[in-house]
Specification:
Blueprint (H helix, E strand, L loop, with lengths): L1 H5 L5 H32 L4 E5 L5 E4 L8 E4 L29 H11 L3 H12 L19 H6 L8 H18 L4 H10 L1 H6 L8 H16 L1
Antiparallel strand pairs: 1-2, 1-3
């Protein structure tokens, strides 16, 4: 009854064709809307699959399925990781001092006390970073971080004067090497923790993490030269 009311002047077969044409005309804008939605999804960086179900209805999905198996819009590749940009050096910042700044003082003290220059340079690097004004929380001062008692013991009057400080530290190292039979590791441990600490440890490096780390750092600096 309905088909006769919709197409009263058209044979039944012709009416069916008109209905099919109408459905295609309706589906066309639907597919257009689907494509527009797909490109909107692409703008949101999502992949889109398209297809039709058993009823002929357009299906869109962000993952492949039996009803939406055709990849319409591929997800964009992930952007490459951005490498961290190192801070540019501050041209106004003063340059860090190096052993070259005190090479003549180091050489003079090494010759006076018959010690390798590399040893004195390594101790200074680890103790103060070549900063002649360095002061530790415990009160050690200058390039070789002399404690007040050590400075007095070796006649250092101005601990912040590079030549005096280096000479006093070199003299102390020479004494420690003689005391510990030229065992450089024990001499360095004593320079850091004190002679008594090494003796109490039975003539070994004390089990202080700071001292053990100190000895390793100085030896590493020496071997790198």
């Amino acid at each position: 009854m309905g088909s006769e009311e919709e197409c009263p002047l058209v044979p039944l077969r012709g009416c069916a064709r008109i209905a099919a044409m109408a459905r295609r005309r309706i589906r066309a804008p639907v597919r257009a809307l689907a494509v527009a939605a797909a490109f909107a999804a692409a703008a949101a960086q999502a992949q889109v699959y398209v297809g039709t179900n058993d009823e002929g209805t357009l299906v869109l999905s962000n993952h492949a399925s039996a009803e939406a198996s055709e990849l319409l819009v591929a997800a964009p590749p992930a952007p490459p990781p951005i490498a961290p940009v190192a801070d540019a050096p501050d041209p106004a910042a003063p340059a860090r001092p190096t052993s070259a700044a005190w090479s003549s003082e180091i050489r003079a003290a090494a010759q006076r006390h018959a010690l390798p220059e590399s040893l004195l340079s390594a101790v200074i690097a680890v103790e103060s970073g070549f900063n002649p004004k360095a002061v530790s929380r415990k009160g050690a001062k200058g390039l070789m971080q002399l404690m007040p008692d050590t400075a007095r013991r070796f006649g250092v009057k101005d601990v912040f004067a590079a030549h005096e400080n280096i000479d006093g530290g070199a003299a102390y190292l020479k004494v420690l090497l003689a005391q510990f039979d030229n065992d450089l590791r024990l001499a360095l441990a004593a320079y850091n923790a004190g002679e008594g600490a090494v003796l109490r440890a039975g003539g070994r490096i004390p089990a202080y993490p700071e001292t053990q780390d100190y000895v390793a750092k100085v030896l590493a600096r020496m071997s790198a030269r």
